[in-house]
Amino acid sequence: MSEENDYFDEEFVADEKKETKEESADEKELRELDKVTINMKYNWLRTTAAVVGAMLVVGFVAWVWMLFWVPVVSEQEQVGYVDEVRCEGRIFKTFEGRMLTFGMLYDSVPDITREFEFSIDNDSVARDLMKLQKTGKRVAVKFKQYDATLPWRGKNTRLVTSFEQR
Question: Which residues of the chain have pLDDT under 70?
Fold first, then answer.
């Protein structure tokens, strides 16, 4: 046998073990580095989608908050004659009303857009306005104008808070 191809030679076996030990040391070092260091490879599509999604959620919450929970645009007063007050609704019973405005009665041609429709949030105010409907007594109602309606607030964006008879 020649010494060059002798696999059982002590030097050849020692060199082979030395190479495998070096490779395993490198692999071990890489594994430790992976455990210790933070992987800085970002998935930009996932990150962008998460940011856009968060912005949409925040925008939607802000829109709902502005529209429904802090919705009072203005507080006003309207003078006229109460034409109708009724209780409506299947789940949320609300009082709805209609009033003929003072300016409409002076026009020679009645204008249907001069009817003032409103909702009432207080039961006692609604009952008192029911007593005044079609009596011909002039009434000044104070109301809050809202951006949007809610089922428990009524069907109209105008919500009457109080009134006074004139």
Answer: 1-23, 35-43, 71, 102-113
Classify domain 72-165 at the CATH topology level: OB fold (Dihydrolipoamide Acetyltransferase, E2P) (2.40.50)
Q: How far is CA 155 from the centre of its chain?
A: 20
Does the global pTM surpass 0.70?
no
- Express each pLDDT in 30-41 by its tens digit: 777 776 665 555
Q: Residue 24 corresponds to which tokens in the numbers above?
A: 């395993």
Q: Is 157 helix (H, G, I), strand (E, B) or coil?
A: coil
With tokens 């076996």, the residue in question is 13
Those residues with Cβ within 8 angstroms of residue 102's Cβ, 6 or more apart along the chain or in another chain: 79, 80, 81, 138
Q: What phi and psi values does residue 135 have, to the nearest 5 degrees?
A: -95, -15
- Kindly state the tokens that stand for 150: 């809610």
Q: What are the tens digits of pLDDT across the range 108-131?
A: 555 444 788 999 988 899 999 999
Per-domain residue ranges for the chain? 10-68, 72-165
